[in-house]
Design a protein that fits this description.
- It contains 14 helices and 10 strands.
- It folds into 2 domains: 156 residues, 3-Layer(aba) Sandwich (Rossmann fold); 142 residues, 3-Layer(aba) Sandwich (Rossmann fold).
- By secondary structure, the protein is of the alpha/beta class.
- It has a 4-stranded parallel beta sheet with strand order 2-1-3-5, with helices on both faces. A 4-stranded parallel beta sheet has the order 8-7-9-10, sandwiched between helices.
- The longest helix is centred in the middle third of the chain and has 23 residues.
- The radius of gyration is 20 Å and the shape is globular.
- Bound molecules: iron/sulfur cluster (SF4).
Length: 325
Amino acid sequence: MAVKVGIPRALFYFYYYPLWKSFLENLGARVVVSPPTNKRIMDAGVKKAVDEACLPVKVYYGHVLELVGSVDLLFAPRLISVEKRAYICPKFMGLPDMIRSNIDGLPPMMDTTIDVSRKSKNLHKGVQEMGRFLSKSPRKITRAWEKALEKHEVFLGLTYSGFLPHEAIEIMEGGCRKVETMGDDSLKIALLGHGYNIYDEHISMNIVRNLKNMGVRVVTPDILPPEVTEAEAAKLPKRMFWTLGKRMLGGVLHYIHDSDVDGIIYVAAFGCGPDSMIADLSERFVRRHKKIPFMLLTLDEHSGEAGVLTRLEAFVDMLTWRGVS
Ligand code: SF4
């Protein structure tokens, strides 16, 4: 019988799920994903996580709890860096340890360290180490990874064509709901923030769907090819060493000069250090370079959809009013 590997539907799920799923399946595993975030999952995570954790990490706990008892292995890599000279938030480094110390009854964890900040060959090492949980053959692991990279390319291709990452995942999983909700072009809003906050419908209080229902076309830095965000981020006086922070600042600089963007919304998570800095920098860039309306939305486990919706409606009304005046 196939080994059941659980993937929590949180954090880097929104950036790498097709890659991870394909890799694990190519090695003969059966992938089990936790359900989309809901109140029960969030509440369970909030209860288990340390108080200092940011909102998406608390949600991650909830997803792990959801998988405990129903899978043979838990996929929880220790992500340090996914590109040279840039890092993932330190909270990711300690994630497997935090989970271990707070959650009982965990299955064995696939918690291989991925750190390519200095040497890209570390990725090969990490992939082999991860693959050994499911196969003894290095060649089979390499082939599984190569095939998974092809899937990742398809995923990236969809995002660069305008689908947001959660929509691209849904399309690749055979869904079509998102295709009919791409939003029209009457207003265009750039959404900034960590993808695992924006694309998780429960955390973000359905921000993408609500904006699209108002006829807004939603764009994010994740749908821009990396050469665009990298070139913009390279103009910063200091190098941004967080991978996602770099992408966001590159994105905001790009969208500032995109004459089609009517407004910018930054979605920040309560308890996120990087957000407090990147949101502030983003707002300063917007104010300095162009008078595009900017709104900061800070979300926590107590946020209510009605309150968020009211703020979105007011923002969109103001943009519409500006457009016709
Ligand atoms: S970047 Fe912010 S939201 Fe993301 S894991 Fe780190 S602290 Fe949490």
